[in-house]
Amino acid sequence: MPVKVSVIVPVYNPGIYIEDCISSLQRQSLPPDEYEVIFVDDGSTDGTPARLDALAAEDPRMRVIHQENSGWSGKPRNVGIEASRGEFVMFVDNDDYLGDEALERMYDYGVAHGADVIVGKMAGKGRGVPVELFRRNHPRATVENAPLIDSLTPHKMIRRAFLDRIGLRFPEGRRRLEDHVFVAEAYLRAENVSVLSDYVCYYHLRRDDGSNAGFERFDPVGYFRNLREALDVVERYTEPGPVRDRLFRRWLRVEMVERLRARRFLKLPDDYRRELFTEIHEVVVERFGPGVAAGLQPTQQVVAALTAADRYDDVVAFAEWEAGVAPRATPLDVEWRDGSISIGFTAEYVSAGEPMVFPADAEASPLTDAPKDVTEAVRWVASETAARFGQATADLLLRERSSAAQYFQPVEFTRETVPAGDGEEVRLVLRATATVDPTALPAGGVWDALVRVKLGGWTKECRLGPAPREDRPAPGAGVVGDRTALPYWTQPHGNLSLEFGTRGKRLGLGAVRRTDVTVSGSRFQVPLPLHVPGETEVRLRLVSASRFFDAPGVLSPAPGGTGSVLAADLPADDLADGVWRVALCPAPGGEQPRFTGLPFALRAVDGGVRVVEVPRPGVALRLARRARRVLGTARRTVLSRIRTGGK
Predict the structure, then answer these.
(1) How far is the C-alpha of 564 from the C-alpha of 552, rounded, in Å?
(2) Residue 645: which pLDDT band, with cuts at 50, 70 and 90?
(3) How far is residue 292 CA from its own chain's centroid?
(4) How far apart are CA 261 and CA 306, in angstroms?
C-alpha cells in the first residue's frame, strides 16, 4: 500500500533518550505498511549509529541515513524530506515521543479537512507547550482565527506535495530558530491548517540531564539575528496592519519581553542579562511599530516600553517587583453531582504573599510613553488591571501526573470586586465552579487540578489548594461509566487531585461495618461510600477456603444522596460449604477490573445467608504475607539505589 506518513527523526548523540521515541514509533496504531520512520544520524559519536542499524535490520518500517555532522537539525530534516515516500511527513525529535494513535489520528483528521499542515495536541514534560491553541479542535485554523503562532516548533505533520510545490525546506547550518522560519512560512502559505486537540499526539520532553539543545544558553547576537529572519518571513507574506502586528507580537512577547520578566530574568548573571537586554532593545526599536506592543497585556507593555527606552536598571527593578506576584486558588466545595465532580473555587493574585489590591475607580488609559519610574509603572499596571477586570478569566485544567497531558474542564465563573482597606481599593476575585466528567478523560492515572488565571498582564497557573480547613472532607470515590474516580487532598500540601481507576483501600470500603449489612433470605444489602449516578451493575466474588465464584450485584444511589447501596441475590446452595469472603469489582467493564475485599463474610443458614466475621488467616498465610512485604521493600530499595547511582 502507499505510504501515508513518513516520520523524520534527526538524531545526534541521544543516548538512552532515544528509546522512548523508538518504542512509541513502533507502537503506532497506523498499519505497519502505511508509515515509515527515517532516522537521519547527523554524525553521532555515541552508540546510536549501531543501535539504529540494528533496529533497521529487524524492523522494515525503520530506515537509517548516516551523514557527517551538520551542526543543527535543519539539514537532517531536509535530508529526511528528500528520502521520504509518504503523502505526509511528520517531524519528531529524538528525545521526544508520540501518543500511540498519533499518526493515524493526525493523518485521518488532515485528510478529512484537506489540510496541508496538521498540528497535534502537545504535552510538555519539563517543557512549556501551547495551552490556548489546544482548547478545542480547529479543523480550519488560520493565523487570524486561532493562536497558531503560539506553536512554532517543527513537530507537525505536513503534506509532502505542499512542501515541494512552494519549495519549503529548513534553513541549514548551526543556527537557532530554524523551525520558526520554516513553520511560519508553512502557516502563511498553507491552503488549510488543522489543529487536533482531543488527543495528545506529541510528548515534548526535557531530559533529566538538561542537555536538550533548546535549553543551552544561547549567544544573544546570533539568536536575534536568526529571529530577524523569521520576522522577514512574516513581512514577505503579510501586509502592514493588524495581522502583521499580531504575528510580530508573538516574538516580542515570547522571545523578548518574557525573557526580561521576573525570576526568569533575575536568575541570569548580570553581564549576560545586559547583553541579552541590549540585543532585544535593538530588535524592538528596529522592527516593531507602536501597534505591536499596544496589543500586549499591561505588565508586558511596561517591559516593552522600558526596553524601547533603553532603561535596563528599571527593567531589573520591575522584574524584582513582578517576581513576588503569583496566583492563589482556594478550593470551596468538591462534591459528586449526577456522575460528575463539581469543584468550586476562588482565585486571585497575591503579591509578596498578600492579596493584591487595585484602585476602586480605575479607568483605562493607554501607555503612550515609558513610565518615569517603577513606582509609576506599578501604579499604571494596577489601574489598567482593574479597568480590564471584565476580561479576566479562570480555568481549571487537569494534568496527568506521569505524562503531563492536560485538558481544560468546563468552568462557569463570576468576577467580584471585594472592598479592601478604606474602600478606595478592592481585591479582584474570580469565583468559579468546574465540572469534571470522569468518562471524558483518558482512563487511569492521577490528575492534578490546576487553576489558570488571566488577570491584567498575568496568565499563570497554580495548584488548587491547599484546602482551607484540615477537616474539609473530599466526597469519596465514585463509579461512573465503567471506571472508578477518587477526588482527594494530597498530603502534606492539601492540594486537590483526582485518581481514576481507584482500587483497594483507597475506595474506602474498609469503613463498612458488619452491622450495616441487612439480609433477607438469600438477598443482602449494604450501604457503601461510593457515589453512583444511577443503578450500576457490579460484580461480586465470593471466596471460600477451597473455591470461589462470581455473582452479579447492583449499586443504587442511597436515599439522601450520600453514597450507594449494594444489593445482590445469592444462591444459598452455592454457599453451603463454609464461610465466604466477599469482594467487590465496582467497574467490571473497565480496562483493568479489580476486586476489593469487603470487611464481612457470609455463611449459608437455613436456605438463606447470614453475615459473619471475616475469618482470620492461618499462621502460615500470615507469615507468607509478611515475607512478601519484606521482599517487596527490599526490591524497592535496590531499584531506588540503582536509579540514583547508589546515593
Answers:
(1) 16
(2) very low
(3) 30
(4) 12
Region of 131 on the Ramachandran plot (φ > 0 left; ψ -120 to 50 alpha; else beta): alpha
In this structure, how many other beta carbons lie within 10 angstroms of the beta carbon of residue 641?
11
Residue 607 vs residues 211, 514, 516, 544, 574: alpha-carbon distances, Å: 71, 21, 22, 18, 11
User: Cis ω on the peptide bond leading into residue 492 (within 30° of 0)?
Assistant: yes
Q: Can you tell me whether residue 236 is helix, strand or coil?
A: helix
Cell 495536541 belongs to: 121
Q: Is residue 1 helix, strand or coil?
A: coil
The per-residue pLDDT for range 266-278, each reduced to its tens digit, is 999 999 999 999 9
C-alpha distance from residue 593 to each of 497, 529, 584, 585, 589 (Å): 22, 19, 10, 7, 7
**Is 628's pLDDT higher than 80?**
no
Lowest mean per-residue pLDDT among 190-204, 473-487, 524-538, 632-646: 632-646
- Residue 468 identity (one-letter amino acid): P
Detail the DSSP E strand segments found in 236-309.
none
User: Cell 531530559 identifies what position?
Assistant: 207
Distance CA 404, CA 428 (A): 30
Q: With contact defined as beta carbons under 8 Å apart, do 89 and 103 qualify?
A: no
Burial of 591 from C-beta contacts in 10 A (0-12 / 13-18 / 19+): exposed
The four Cα atoms 132, 137, 138, 139 give a dihedral, to 10 degrees, of 160
SS3 217: coil
Q: Is the pLDDT of residue 634 over 70?
A: no
Task: Specify which residues 124 forms β-bridges with.
Answer: 204
From residue 638, give the alpha-carbon distance in Å to each of 321, 481, 627, 643: 47, 39, 17, 9
Cell of 47: 552508540
pLDDT surpasses 60 at 478: yes
Nearest-angstrom CA–CA distance, 573 and 577: 9
Q: Of 517, 557, 541, 529, whose CA–CA distance to 594 is shortest?
A: 541
In a 3-state reduction of DSSP, which class is residue 642?
helix
Distances (CA, A) of 279 to 227, 283, 310, 383: 11, 7, 11, 31
Cα dist from 183 to 123, 284, 307, whole Å: 19, 22, 28
Which whole number is the average pLDDT over 617-644? 54
Contacts of 49 (CB under 8 A, 6+ apart): 41, 64, 66
R_g of the chain computed on alpha carbons: 29
pTM of the complete model: 0.86
Which triple of cell numbers denotes residue 197?
486537540
Residue burial 37-56, b: 16+ Cβ < 10 Å; e: rest: bbbbbbebeeebbebbeebb
The Cα–Cα gap between 26 and 22 comes to 6
pLDDT in tens, 569-624: 987 777 777 888 999 999 998 877 889 999 999 888 877 788 888 876 544 444 44
Cα gap 508→499, rounded to integer Å: 13
What is the DSSP annotation of 123-156? Answer: EEESS---SGGGSS-EEEE-TTTS-GGG--SS--
Distance (Å, whole) CA 271 – CA 274: 5
Q: What is each CA distance from 109 to 14, 106, 149, 152, 369, in whole angstroms?
A: 31, 5, 20, 20, 47
